[in-house]
From TrEMBL:
Claim: Ribosomal protein is one of the keywords in the record: no
Gene3D superfamilies registered for this protein in UniProt: Cyclic phosphodiesterase
The keyword Nuclease belongs to this UniProt entry's keyword annotation: yes
Gene: Usb1
Keyword annotations from UniProtKB, A to Z: Hydrolase, Lyase, Nuclease, Nucleus
Listed name of the protein: U6 snRNA phosphodiesterase 1
One MF annotation (Gene Ontology) recorded for this entry: 3'-5'-RNA exonuclease activity
Highest rank taxon of the organism: Eukaryota
Record function comment: 3'-5' RNA exonuclease that trims the 3' end of oligo(U) and oligo(A) tracts of the pre-U6 small nuclear RNA (snRNA) molecule, leading to the formation of a mature U6 snRNA 3' end-terminated with a 2',3'-cyclic phosphate. Participates in the U6 snRNA 3' end processing that prevents U6 snRNA degradation. In addition also removes uridines from the 3' end of U6atac snRNA and possibly the vault RNA VTRNA1-1.
One BP annotation, GO: U6 snRNA 3'-end processing
Catalytic activity: a 3'-end uridylyl-adenosine-RNA = a 3'-end 2',3'-cyclophospho-uridine-RNA + adenosine; a 3'-end uridylyl-uridine-RNA = a 3'-end 2',3'-cyclophospho-uridine-RNA + uridine
């Protein structure tokens, strides 16, 4: 859940980013992915969620820091994103991915990327506009993040739960 100060930082970043890509839009929801998007058959949802719950039950809460801006595109290059890459907490996220991948394999679904760049998407635009956002633009945006008064506090994230979305339903797995 985004704090008011985080939304202020986001507005500064998007406003500056729009000087390079006018169609840049702020994300309305924020998440960090531990899997690719997959299609679950209706009759798989309950056993899938049960298996996730069992595999994630032993994990403890932890902190990560997401403070390094990076430009991403989706696999088919139809969307470009500006995201905050995780700079601390990577090991714990890899452990979580390993367990999520185990569940995906049970259902013969694709696992996560081999060398993931854990990040929280902040803004997006249609098409592959990474060339306009990288370089000078990205450096200016990183300067805004680095100079933002509350950034050290805002970009330190406590992981208290893992969520799984299937259709319009959310399933929550609290961490110990």
């Amino acid at each position: 859940i985004a704090r008011e100060e985080f939304l202020e930082l986001l507005e500064l970043l998007v406003s500056r980013g729009r000087t390079y890509v006018p169609s840049l839009a702020a994300m309305e929801e924020f998440h960090l992915s531990l899997s690719q998007c997959v299609v679950l058959r209706y009759h798989w949802i309950e056993p899938f969620v049960r298996s996730l719950r069992e595999r994630l039950a032993t994990f403890h809460r932890f902190f990560c820091v997401a403070d390094q801006l990076k430009v991403y595109t989706n696999q088919n290059k139809t969307r470009t994103f500006i995201g905050l890459e995780v700079s601390a907490g990577h090991f714990q996220l890899l452990e979580l991915v390993s367990e999520v991948d185990g569940v995906l394999e049970e259902f013969d679904l694709p696992t996560f990327y081999k060398d993931p760049s854990f990040h929280i998407s902040l803004a997006w635009c249609v098409g592959d506009l990474s060339g306009r956002l990288e370089g000078k633009c990205l450096r200016e945006l990183q300067d805004i993040v680095d100079g933002f008064e509350e950034s050290a506090f805002l970009l330190r994230i406590q992981w208290e739960q893992i969520r799984c979305k299937s259709g319009n339903k959310y399933f929550s797995f609290p961490l110990r």
